[in-house]
Amino acid sequence: MTMSQAKARSNERLERYRAAEQQLWGDYGLEPREHLVQVPELRSAVRVTEVGSGRPLVFVAGTGGTGPYWAPLVRELSGFRCLLVERPGWGLSDPVDYRGRDLADVSATVLGAVQEALGAPNVDAIGASVGNLWALGLAARRPDAVRRVVLLGGAPWREVPIPKFFRILASPLGAIIVRLPLSRKATASQIRAIGHGASLDAGALDRFIDWRVSLTRETPSMRHERSMVQAYLGGDGWRPGFVPTDRELASVQQPVRMLFGTEDSTGTPEVWERFVALLPNASLELIQGAGHMAWWDAAEEVGRSMRTFLGDAP
Known about the structure:
Blueprint: H1 3-27, E1 33-39, E2 44-51, E3 55-60, H2 71-75, E4 80-85, H3 103-117, E5 123-128, H4 130-141, E6 146-152, H5 164-170, H6 172-177, H7 184-193, H8 197-201, H9 206-218, H10 221-232, H11 246-250, E7 256-261, H12 269-277, E8 282-287, H13 299-310
Helix pairs in contact: 1-9, 3-4, 5-10
């Protein structure tokens, strides 16, 4: 294959992925704006999709998340300026080399660049899954830049067993897995395993699955996630610099609200009660019957809780 043929094929894949994004956004009547933010310290750039206007909220997703991942939730947050950051290597963001770097430092560097570039010096930080670590990292490293923090779903922590999928991803077998086309059936099975069986059975996640399949097939996102996992996963667990220590959690002075779906397989309510107890000003709220991405099962409830905690937008 010539260089021009490779570029043409890459462009075709990108267009297919963008089409899947637009279909999912369209289901929720949303028309996001797009930014590419340079992060010189990391020699990379991240894509940010923006929805709405008002007080700024910065969102960071977990594994498998780019802008449309948040669609049902941001529709419930009218009056806020939602800045949806694609983590390095995900979607259309450049990858970074995580080796030898504390995740909190990477988080503060990337999100700080987003805040500066998009004129949002003071934000509420919203995380989901691994993105929770990013929201907490920003709050700890740049306390004057973060007003409040919302954590959605379980995340890596010392009391949470490392998911089997992450161990496989970091292994030599992972190099093969991330290059295999992901089917709708396999994607649905993954989503069911993290607590979304009821929504799947009701057909509420059909378009979400179409988008997720396209994300994993048409972009190198999973290959980059493998690199991140390899950088932070050691033989016995997470290496230092990935999961926050108790001392680091105690340094987060901002109000924090954690919303945890009772069907989420990442930890238990008891685990997250102990987690929020380490944060000086935090609370845990359970979303009954919801899975790991609780807003895909209960968007109105999650949105209402967030608006109450953040304070309704003007």
